[in-house]
Records
---
Amino acid sequence: MMYHKALSGVLAGSLALMAGCASQPEEVSAAYVSPVKYMNYDCEQITFEMDHVSKRTLNLYRKLKDKADSDAVQMGVGLVLFWPALLFLEGGDGPEAVEYANLKGEFEALRSTAREKHCSMASLPPSPEEIIQKRAEEEKASQQQQNSIDV
């Protein structure tokens, strides 16, 4: 009986500490940004702004991914080796996550405005999610190719 209470306490504490860890960027939802903000833009300006927003989003994605991965490693090591150290985890989603959500919303608003203005969708830059997915697929293919060479 005492063992179950102790185990329950450890599990509850672990869950509470994990709530303080940084979220993976894939889990951050886009904030709402009104497309009205871009109604006075022409297609060229929309494309330029989408490119800028996409690049900034990708930079933040890398930072957030590194932070979330680091928190996950610290959590794993802390649970196994020294759980009191988990109390000192930085954790949580900082201002970068808020900016990331806003930029995702900006990109969606720009894409919506581009559709309304009948801009050539082929000339628009890919979304940050599309770029991330493509890079992940390239890394996976490269890893598989490396593994087949090693065998």
---
Amino acid sequence: MAALAATGALIVGGGAAAMVGSGNAEPLVPLPVPVAGTTYVLPDLAPFAVLDNRGDGAEEVSAEHGAPTGGGEASLRLTTPSGTDKASIATDEDAGTPLAAWIPAAAYSAFQAAAENPDQFPSMQLAVDYDPSDPAVGFSTLTYEPIYNAGDSRTPGVWHRYQAGAGRWCSTRAIPGVIDESQRSCSNGGAKTLAEYVAAQPGIVVSYLVINQGSGNPGLDAAVDLVSTPSTTYDFELTEPQLPGTDPCEQPSTPPAHPGDGGNGHEDDGNNGNNGDSGHEDEGNGGHEPSDGGQEPSHGDGHEQPDNGGHEQPPGGGHEPPHCAGS
């Protein structure tokens, strides 16, 4: 599968938090600086792309619901006003990774601001292929939802951290040795651990990751952040964090006298259970499977060159001083 456009994401390999001020100043507010091992996802959503929006379902990077502890100032806001709406985004940056690699890695933080059903939260989905040698067979979508994991916290108005890799996942299709036709979409004990999928199909791989708020969730206004995969953690932010001293327009400043809470949220880690009881069957799509039963994330070209081949220099040979506010 072709890679999704990556323009706009800031991948950070290192960085340390820093504070500015003097020993006699008021308590200091940590600067928003890059965190090692984090990919920052900005409002253009790259390296994600919209996968399957329906009706008035929408997603945006927003500070409306803040962020979990360690998640900066913003998060991915998802809204589905009616029961037929859907919002989902996907990335294939980890395409081809063994499903086994997601067992210790897969996790995300979620927040529910409003919902007609207070048990509903956004889900994490993995499009998988248990037979990569045959493109005609092997596709399914595995879905992790807190509601299918007994013990997962689902209190509205607080951030929760879901260790999805250790939880139970439902499959949209039968998978030999682990999910039969009667167990599709969480039916009849169809919520299984990733380890069970791997044991039945050792060659199973992940094609792409989906953050989904599916149909059947009327009135759900929620947020997701700090989405962890085998290769990185995605932090949704309105602007790129910068290391102190790297912004050419940065000016010395005096710390505020009344700093705010640096956590930007009240995270509730929750207790991830592994209860296979379903009880929430959602036949048909139910918000769990991409609409075409295997649709890849949409691709934008994102590499358009200017008419002169992309080699135009600004006046001054490319060395023009930065234009800062007020200058």
---
Amino acid sequence: MEQDFASLNLVDGEEEPFEIHGTDSHFEDHHLCLVSVFLTANVVHFESMKNTMADLWHPLGGITTTEIGDKCFLFLFYNEIDLSRVLQGTPWFFNKHLLLLHKIQDGEDHALIPLVYSDFWVQVYDLPSGLMSEAIAKQFGNFIGRFLEYDPSQTFIGPSRIMGIKVTLDIRLPLKRKKKIVLRPDSFVYARFQYEKLSLFCFICGKLGHGESFCPVRLSIKPKDISFGWDISLKAPPCRGLQVASKWLVEPGVNRIVTPDKEGVGT
């Protein structure tokens, strides 16, 4: 018996690897995948959501959507063009609920990725004309969140002079409302921020994803002490992708002189 135990090797075969066959290479290779979660406490109906998002994105190569957790989904694209177009178009929503997206990088485990960031275009108002530059835009962008892009073409909405900045927001933090700018020792102005495509946010804590009726702050203070530090003025008017009216169109009620041509036909 002792001789049998002496010759027993407890790790026999443990170092011999298995060869895995028949795996789906699309799902093993996540470089064309977006992992996502909806910022809501409500139920997200999977079938309705995947059809709605596919119709919104209309990917040229198609899309496969997989449910991987509570309100968490994996979107598999079949070419880089479709995936990039979706990322460029953020933020996206389903039933007014914000969709947080992350492109999976090599070596990342989608189950461990913190889905707490979303990209937004922000309009900055009330800036003196001398501050309309990319360098200033980067400072504002990194104050609001993380600077991504500056739009130098977006300088006016009606009579208002604005600066357009694309930023990454941390949805765990309150939305920034304004920033004090000192021009001289005795002079300052406030730059105001408005967020494009802004959906549900709280007027009490300033965070995305819930309204004031469901704000956790209510649990820690008395109702009479609740203050509303944020309001609807943070929602920006739409300006990106607006259709420009044709110069040939004449609005109803506008008098135009009809000049007859040589054959007597009006022109």
